[in-house]
Fold Transcriptional regulator with XRE-family HTH domain.
Amino acid sequence: MLREMREAKRLTLAAVAKATGCSVTKIQRMETGERGMDPSDVSALLNLYKAPAELRDNLVDLLSTPADRDWWYGIGTWLPLTWRREIPLEDEATVLRAYTLGSIPLLLQTAAYSQAFLSCLYPHLSYRDVRRLVGILAARQLILDRDPMPRLHFLIDEAALRRPIGGPGVHAQQLQAVAAAAARPNLTVQVVPLSAGAHPGVAGSMTLLEFAELPAMAATAESAGFEGSKPFVEDNFDLWDAIEKQASSEEATTQMLRSRAGLLLNARTPTRAGNRTVAEEIAFPSQTRRSDASPGKPCEVTISLREPLGAQGEPVLAHPEGEQD
């Protein structure tokens, strides 16, 4: 994550080292997880990268937490119930499998995408609280680099690739980020194409967890959180296998992600294709701010991009009218 934020600001390792007084080697090892991270060093980097205050505070608090205390200690009381149930189990899992139907998996979401997604998922939360959730999600995503590394396998329905949450620019950057994440040695990403037709995943998302010393657990869209009963878990592993058989290969998935991202980026500069623009061809909904959303209207959050998107560029979030940090 630190590397992605640095590259989004178009800073070299040498420039960051000079600005923070650290060596290039130290910065590089912090980015790759080869060395522990001091809270003051991380705070300096996040300040340099102009990271959102909530993200900076949550990560610094995480690194400052005593080793014998779980990182989510003290923040769980206001989190959504599903998060309170997921985080402790997620943190202990050695293998995590997740199938998502309507959105990119939380553990792979960029800050801008999750800002737009969580704003619609939890419309009762204030802008500030949604930003706090985005920061906590960034802390959850640290399990991708945990030692020992867990094994993660994500199946994503193609519908999630076609729903441009946050607008086409933000969604393109999100798809690029998923493609980049798929190159991790401990992570597998596959898309379940719409051409697969009916399959067990049409009923909703699911998550399967395996642990070193505990029985496996499963959660579905219809269950009340994670359950560990053997028949329930075995049934859902069978469903997972059935969905996976319909999924595209890892190579085809990466190609699909990059192709879709390119189409969305082209849509930011509409060009005529017959009587329709490229933007019209992919049919993303008109963007409205949350304050304009009402029942029956698409929930969309406007995200502004102050700089052109790079391969791993990080868009800057726009403040809803009338709200400040």
About this structure: The chain has 13 helices and seven strands. The domain at 1-51 is CATH 1.10.260.40 (434 Repressor (Amino-terminal Domain)). Residues 270-298, 301-325 have pLDDT under 50 and may be disordered.
